[in-house]
TrEMBL record:
Keyword DNA-binding (UniProt): no
Alphabetized UniProt keyword annotations: Lipid transport, Lipid-binding, Transport
GO molecular function term, any single one: sterol binding
GO cellular component, one term: cytosol
Protein name: Oxysterol-binding protein
PANTHER family in UniProt: OXYSTEROL-BINDING PROTEIN-RELATED, OXYSTEROL-BINDING PROTEIN-RELATED PROTEIN 1D
Length: 262
């Protein structure tokens, strides 16, 4: 398999994997202040990240990230619609991933809805079509299936990679956004009747199932993002999220102080 085909398969898995951490996390996040920033630097991973809230109305957050051989940048804005018992969030913005050889991929996020906000068990779902446009030989189309009331297998994602030169389908993707993604080379629809593509499926990405549930269903990595390690405070600008007193009070369980600060 050519590196360029495997590249877009991994880009597709990356685009899906970002939704995995939303499972079980329905609480409203902190609304960043205008000009609030966050930066992270992991020299051992060759990774640097920076984000800033650049507009308050509408609320827009922009980010830039660099790794070994690639750059990623995006802007994020949400259009919210209240339906009585649910909230629909339609993302506005483009995510761009560029590799050092110049190949670029762009896509937008799918719709997110939060259900049973008045009564019942709250849950969220992601649905719609995600198109990953590649500047090179391949592009990808992913369909996030909307969960129905009687659905026994929710969170399904399926799609295909298409050759930009011929329009031919060269790989199929299937999985669940909160579990794993698999791929099958070729076009399974051209196989004989009764063929099960999962017999040839190969794993692309699998969610790291952390054993211990934390208070807000955050992963150990997500929890570490708010940590002020020794010497870090002196290096951060005053606009950094980790210096917000209300956020720090909440993490420490001092809810009255957090509300007063807010």
């Amino acid at each position: 398999v050519g590196n360029d085909l495997m590249r877009i398969l991994h880009v597709a898995a990356f685009a899906v994997s970002g939704y995995a951490s939303t499972e079980g996390r329905q609480c409203k996040p902190f609304n960043p202040l205008l000009g609030e920033t966050y930066e992270a630097d992991y020299p051992d991973k060759g990774l640097r990240f920076f984000s800033e809230k650049v507009s308050h109305h509408p609320s827009v957050v922009a980010c830039h990230c660099e790794g070994r051989g690639w750059k990623f940048w995006a802007d994020s804005n949400l259009k919210g619609t209240f339906w009585g018992r649910s909230i629909q969030l339609d993302p506005i913005g483009v995510l761009t991933l560029q590799f050092e050889d110049g190949e670029t991929f762009q896509w937008s996020k799918v719709t997110t809805s939060i259900y049973n906000i008045i009564i019942g068990k709250i849950y969220c779902d992601h649905y719609g079509t995600m198109r990953i446009k590649g500047s090179g030989n391949y592009s990808c189309k992913l369909k996030f299936k909307e969960q129905s009331i009687m659905d026994q297998t929710p969170h399904q994602v399926h799609g295909f990679v298409q050759d930009n030169r011929t329009g031919e389908k060269v790989a199929m993707l299937v999985g669940k956004w909160d579990e794993a993604m698999y791929y099958v080379l070729g076009d399974p629809t051209m196989k004989p009747k009764g063929y099960d593509p999962m017999t040839d499926a190969l794993l692309l990405w699998e969610r790291d199932k952390y054993a211990t549930k934390t208070r807000y269903n955050l992963t150990p990595f997500a929890i570490s993002l708010n940590e002020l390690t020794p010497g870090l405070r002196e290096k951060l600008p005053p606009t950094d999220s980790r210096l917000r007193p209300d956020q720090r009070y909440l993490e420490n369980g001092e809810y009255e102080l957090a509300n007063a600060e807010k």
